[in-house]
Amino acid sequence: xxxxxxxxxxxxxxxxxxxxxxxxxxxxxxxxxxxxxxxxxxxxxxxxxxxxxxxxxxxxxxxxxxxxxxxxxxxxxxxxxxxxxxxxxxxxxxxxxxxxxxxxxxxxxxxxxxxxxxxxxxxxxxxxxxxxxxxxxxxxxxxxxxxxxxxxxxxxxxxxxxxxxxxxxxxxxxxxxxxxxxxxxxxxxxxxxxxxxxxxxxxxxxxxxxxxxxxxxxxxxxxxxxxxxxxxxxxxxxxxxxxxxxx
Length: 247
Prior knowledge:
Layout: E1 5-6, H1 13-30, H2 39-52, E2 59-65, H3 74-79, E3 89-95, E4 99-100, E5 103-110, H4 118-134, E6 138-147, H5 148-163, E7 188-191, H6 203-207, E8 224-234, E9 239-246
Parallel strand pairs: 1-4, 5-6
Antiparallel strand pairs: 2-3, 3-5, 6-9, 7-8, 8-9
Helix pairs in contact: 1-2, 4-5
């Protein structure tokens, strides 16, 4: 281990992604490329930002990475056979064999995709939290990109669903916050996936996207903290991106 070179990932990479995405989308739209806007286009922009701020000698950048922490426990598979592809992160960046240091996990949502709903965003948040729990040196970030009103709508839908669990006049903290786009005074928040009433935020469809433990139950984090790293809105069409660190 002493022969390994210590490397690190820029702490402001999340902020750089938040500012680069809407700027590049605005540029591409000016070049008549809007017809090609989709999840893959957004992923390509993020990949370009990431590799431009890292050395290939220091870090591996893997897309669609089947992280071990997101897979069913071996014993659980005996009773419940999982079909289909393994659970994946959109991006996973880790040191090469010659280096040591922290890693980075990224989940991305393009708001116009049929796969981008408030429930699938919650599933991404929970998965990132599980990765953070399994690997203490891994930084985990969530990226939501699209038109401003669509980004805001998804964030608000998560808040409404979370608050619907509360009894009486009880108010929960918003799971995700936006400072410039929604006028929040802070970009940090925290919440419990299962509240004191035993209600799970997201329902069975979200729970089914989480890995099975050896006891046959889904691995649900006890608490989640989301810290806003950056947000940006660019151009007449209000392309927007928000990035949170999940811990």
